[in-house]
């Protein structure tokens, strides 16, 4: 992990993506910079409009800063296995420790901050700039009596939203830049200032103050207790447990929906247009997250997500979408926020996601694989759940031959993507196994015929015998990193020469630094966008996973070491990584990056237990 760095400016522009830590309460998340600035918060849930949006603009778009501006060194860590963040500011006159947390468990949306001078007096800076509507709406801010009858609080109100700020030392109204509240003060040694922020609908009265000390301590213990259930003690313990915690943080505790990331529009190409809103529930990403959690014993999350799935996709199988809102909503229109300049000038800033209307034939494969693993893990199959699966698989039998937009959601011409065809095979294979291995009802003879047809179609049209590799789509001469999934899902035995050749070809084409792979070459893939990309971190996990399954434990270890090393100082992974600058790129924290790491470590450790031999073959109808 990177060494702690000095901070010379409390509000650098832009803050490096890797310099953000994440807080979460099971409904939404906040991003806090190394300098102590909350630059992103969307209350009360992940896909709500932001009230602090400096992440995609500047302080004038909303932030909550609590910092030591004279700091010469800043270090930070999460307490135990939790999302209670401790940031230590070392200054010429003393040291201050800032504790940040979003308490869990009571349905409120609070953010708690406590700063303590542990050595010497420390000069502190406090700024509170609220902008609802993703930084566009200036609220009405005024002091009102606290609900407890103990002094005043500051309340910011606009439209349906309000924020309540209370604490030991409230900032001066209008005393700061950007029409915000600010305060400069010296904190004597041994003294603390505690502040809390609460979101509440604007039509409701000021809520009672949270029991701060109790709730922060309880939150730390709740996260740590959940993490202990994983019982993982291997070489990559820190990386695995932190990644599992991130996946839990991105899971809505009320609905069971799992979002792909906590942010929108952090760019894949800084300064460019590859900026997407990932605060929604992709069936693919959520299903893969479920597999990672199941492999570590988290069956409750599997049950909650399956119920979310039943609600979200209920109805006509032909109307199933690739993604939904956290509550299962279907309307996710994409629009641009032209008032925001974007991170590092990356425009447009988008909310919503037009990919919601795409055809991606791989999605049901990921869903069926996850639900199959849930059955194998002892999660009882319900009648409604299996009925839904049979209807979806029957619909896939009629549609898998059509071209689609693929896993990478290209906005160019639909194609017959190899990965999509293989995942259609997975969906049919897991349906067949549901009948064969679990005694569930279904037209198994038809499913077997279709499974065999998909398998034969892929071998006939996606295999390039001259190059010795599968290709990105039918008729292509190049690969993409999604083809690594062919090893992971059992389409062929892992050590089949065709898969060995494919992994080698992917590394030759897409590995731009040791263990770091591009998703695809943008000059060879018509994705409908300008610009280029950086290595996609989930692909590193897939590579390590594939190598482990093929018996190359040393190769898998080398890739995992790279993935472990690029994690931030608090263990987070974004979507991409720039090996030239050593910086995270894209939305953060990214579920796909973390789940790929977790699953790769699982395969790595299983390969070690086998003595480095390839994963045993599982013979199935439809394999040559």
Strand content: 15-25%
Residue stretches low in confidence (pLDDT < 50, at least 5 long) are 1-11, 619-624
Spatial order of the strands forming the largest sheet: 5-6-7-8-14-12-11-10
Estimate the mean pLDDT confidence.
93
Q: Gap between N and C termini, in Å?
A: 45 Å
Describe the global form: globular
Helix content: 25-40%
DSSP E strands, number: 24
Number of helices: 14
Give an overview of the whole structure.
There is one protein chain. The chain starts with 19 loop residues before the first strand and ends in a 15-residue tail after the last helix. The protein has 14 helices and 24 strands. With 624 residues, the protein is of the alpha+beta class. The strands form seven sheets. An eight-stranded antiparallel sheet has the order 5-6-7-8-14-12-11-10, covered by helices on one side. Strands 1-2-3-4-9-13 form a six-stranded antiparallel sheet, with no helix packed on it. The radius of gyration is 25 Å and the shape is globular. The longest helix is centred in the C-terminal third of the chain and has 21 residues, at 418-438. 31% of the residues lie in helices and 19% in strands.
